[in-house]
Amino acid sequence: MNITQPYNWSTNTVAGILEDETYLGRTINLKSTTVSFKNKKRIDRPESEQLRFENTHEALITQQTWEIVQDIRKHKRRPAKMEEQNIFSGLVYCMDCGGTMALHRACTLDVVKNNFMCSTYKKKGKDACSGHYIREQELSAIILDDIRRVTHLARQNKMRFAEHIRKKQGKEVQQEIVMLQKKIDTMQKRQAELTKLFKRLYEDSVLGRIPDEQYRILSQEYTAEQKEIQEQLPAMEARLQELKDSSSNIARFIKNAKRYTEIPELTSEILHIFIKRVEVGERAKKYSRTAPQEVRIYYRDIGLVDELP
Questions:
Q1: In this structure, what are the phi and psi dihedrals at residue 40, rounded to the nearest 5 degrees?
Q2: Which residues of 251-273 are buried (b: 16+ CB within 10 A; e: fewer)?
Q3: Alpha helices, DSSP H only, in 245-303?
Q4: Could you read off the pLDDT of 209-250 as tens digits, one per residue?
Q5: Is-contact 102 134, C-beta < 8 A?
Q6: Considering Cα of 74, then 90, then 303, then 233, what sign does the dihedral take?
Q7: What is the number of alpha carbons within 13 Å of residue 40 lying toward its C-beta?
Q8: Residue 293: exposed, middle, or buried by beta-carbon count in 10 A (0-12, 13-18, 19+)?
Q9: In angstroms, rounded to a whole number, what is the distance separating the alpha carbons of residues 80 and 104?
Q10: 177-195: b or e for each residue (b if 16 or more CB lie within 10 Å)?
């Protein structure tokens, strides 16, 4: 940001603000270090080596707002040729291959014809997946109707709703917690091993025990593996904490349901507050407009929600 033009913010400035955990009431130490005691150039440390301290000052935003912003940033929308943006960006996926569902808008401006199609099918053809076509208006109506249903259930009897979700999540959550913890432990162990391997490799290179070419190849392999771990580990740790906080997450969902008692239409705000992911299945009979088609709606904080017993 130019101090002579305080309101002329660059995209990097805005991105830095959106990713700054200070606004959550956290203090982050050891963000960067120097190359060596001789080279004072600053380099960023991986998140796994940084120190995080919670509640060191008053938070300016809620944890949910932070999570929604990070989700949106992970699925940045490219500028649309048409005036209206895709409010479903980053939310709709193919139930079979797991790929995103791409929105195709009709050139005739006939919104009734706008439809979603599996991006894997679009790129690789029928051998990789099938179309999973669904009209945008049809999907909007399904999601809006279900959001109204679930938020009504949450408001109607919050204790019964919370207990139902807790029981439903119980076994599934515990299984995922155990699986994630094992993966995290394995990755952290491997990370420590790589640090030792780097040290040993460097010593062998300095002492001439291995050829320079072998050092270069092994160094690149270790660096690539370490980078992959550093990229995956924070997201896995965040997901683990999210699962452990499932009780507070249910309470947060109920609070939002009470806040939005009237939902006249589907908006980007409503979608990102309530919806985590939508999966679209293939029709029971391909190319049929009347054959049944499954749509799974995963709610933020609570997952799939069926009817209360």
A1: -90, 10
A2: ebbbebbeeeeeeeebeeebbbb
A3: 246-259, 268-274
A4: 888 888 888 888 888 888 888 888 888 888 788 777 666 688
A5: no
A6: negative
A7: 0
A8: buried
A9: 11
A10: eeebeeebeebeeebeebe
- Let me know: does 87 contact 267? Beta carbons within 8 Å: yes
Strand-by-strand arrangement of the 295-299 sheet: 92-94, 275-280, 295-299
In 110-140, which positions are buried (b, 16+ CB within 10 angstroms) versus exposed (e)? eeeebbbbbbbbbeeeeeebbbbbbebebbb
Does the reported pTM lie above 0.90?
Answer: no
Q: Residue 140: what are its φ and ψ, rounded to 5°?
A: -60, -45
62: helix, strand or coil: coil
- Mind listing the pLDDT tens digit for each residue in 55-110? 788 888 877 777 777 777 765 655 545 455 788 988 999 999 999 999 987 665 56
Query: Residue 226 carries which side chain, given as an amino acid letter?
Result: Q
Residue where the block lists tokens 């009504």: 152
Which is it for strands 92-94 and 275-280: parallel, antiparallel or unpaired?
A: parallel
Query: 158-206 vs 212-244: helix axis angle to the nearest 10?
Result: 160
